[in-house]
Amino acid sequence: MASTSDISRGLIIKLDGSLYKVIEFGENKTARAAAKVWAKLKGVDNNRTIEQTWNSGDNIFPVRVERKEYQYLYKDDTGYNFMDNETFEQVAVPETMVDAPQFLKEGQNVSVLFNTETEQPMSVELPDKIVVLVTYSEPGMRGDTATRTLKPATVETGATVMVPLFVNEGEMIRVNTKTGDYVERVK
């Protein structure tokens, strides 16, 4: 058991029978009233995003989570299939549990979060930034560099990313998997 002072980003807590991950949190203090702690929570076992408020010092129920390195293998009817790099054990995860499925490519290492009480996978997190190959992009207009103009580009995973005009087909780029934004060109 923990209190509201233990809340941090990424903490997974049990609330009303469901599991939620803390996305954002803060504290509100007023002159005469007791301090309140608020948190924006994203459902781990459901797709809900909620905001919750507690009185400062209230009890919360964190869930112990274990993070393991897995390798993405393939997608089929059961979902996305991953393999443990140490034991070679495979696990299938539905698409709703994958962080950014549009950026998954075969052989890529990811982190799978397991609930230690039930030994069930809770979510799959990709690295913050990945390097992908641009498979299709329209050529940029020469001289159109006064403003930060972007154009759509299709990457090897099939996702579409908005890139600057100087990025061409066949180049490697770094993409932020959390936002889906272009970061930089990789040489």
Protein structure class? mainly beta
User: How far apart lie the N and C ends?
Assistant: 49 Å
Q: Which class of the largest domain in CATH terms?
A: Mainly Beta
Q: Which consecutive residue ranges, at least 5 long each, have pLDDT under 50?
A: none
Please give the share of residues in helix. under 10%
**Average pLDDT value?**
88
Task: Please tally the helical runs, counting DSSP H or I stretches of 4 or more residues.
Answer: 0
Domain module count? 3
Strand fraction: over 45%
* Total beta-strand segments: 16
CATH superfamily of the largest domain: Nucleic acid-binding proteins
By CATH, the topology of the largest domain is: OB fold (Dihydrolipoamide Acetyltransferase, E2P)
Radius of gyration: 21 Å
Envelope shape: flat
Run of helices and strands: EEEEEEEEEEEEEEEE
CATH-scheme architecture of the largest domain:
Beta Barrel
Which strand order do you get reading across the main beta sheet? 9-8-7-10-11
Biggest pleated-sheet summary? 5 strands, antiparallel
Q: Would you give an account of this structure?
A:
The protein has 187 residues and is an all-beta fold. It has strands at residues 2-3, 12-15, 18-28, 36-43, 49-55, 59-60, 65-76, 79-84, 90-93, 109-115, 120-125, 129-137, 150-155, 160-164, 172-176, 182-186. The strands form 4 sheets. Strands 9-8-7-10-11 form a 5-stranded antiparallel beta sheet, with no helix packed on it. Strands 14-13-12-15-16 form a 5-stranded antiparallel beta sheet, with no helix packed on it. The protein has 3 domains: 2-60, SH3 type barrels (Roll), CATH 2.30.30; 65-125, Beta Barrel (OB fold (Dihydrolipoamide Acetyltransferase, E2P)); 129-186, OB fold (Dihydrolipoamide Acetyltransferase, E2P) (Beta Barrel). Keywords: Cytoplasm, Elongation factor, Protein biosynthesis. Residues 130-185 form the Elongation factor P C-terminal domain. One of its GO terms (cellular component) is cytosol. It is found in: Cytoplasm.
